[in-house]
Specification:
Strand content: under 5%
Number of helices: 6
Largest sheet: none
Order of helices and strands: HHHHHH
Helix content: over 70%
Structural class: mainly alpha
Oligomer: single chain
């Protein structure tokens, strides 16, 4: 599923870049791609630090910063989209950096996948049993001393 999506997006990007290049010229198209990347990178930096501050505030209040972590994932994906040259990926990346559309993305992701995550019937837990022979266990017990240094002011 991911490979066909990658191929289709790449072909669409090439088509849009060629079409824009025909309309406004090659140099202007390259300049426009560079400008959108610069604007996106400054937005990426600002939104990343803002989300980090919100997460720290949530942790200071004793809350789990789950939504802020989801925002961080969307910001990361948006940054990758902005690094990919092209107008379609830049548009999607910029939408991921705008707080209102980012919340919309997160809410849609959670709505569509919440039933999959919370309806898992099979959980697998592994427990590794230490198969140390009893003679070695006795030897390990003797070496429980912890070395350290202590200073008193």
């Amino acid at each position: 599923m991911l490979f066909p999506l990658f191929v289709v997006v790449t072909l669409l990007e090439i088509y849009v870049l060629v079409s824009v290049g025909d309309a406004i010229g090659g140099f202007s198209t390259v300049l426009l791609v560079i400008i959108t990347a610069l604007i996106g990178s400054s937005l990426l930096k600002h939104q990343g630090w803002s989300t980090m501050a919100k997460a720290q505030r949530s942790m200071a209040e004793g809350k789990t910063p789950a939504f802020e972590m989801m925002e961080g994932v969307v910001i990361l994906v948006s940054g990758v989209m902005l690094l990919t040259p092209g107008f379609i990926t830049d548009t999607v990346g910029l939408l991921g950096l705008i707080p209102l559309s980012r919340r919309y993305f997160i809410n849609n992701i959670l709505e569509k996948n919440a039933s999959k995550v919370f309806s898992q019937k099979n959980a697998v837990f592994t427990y590794k049993i230490n198969q140390t022979p009893p003679a070695e266990k006795k030897r390990e017990k003797k070496d429980d001393a912890i070395e350290g240094e202590f200073w008193e002011d």
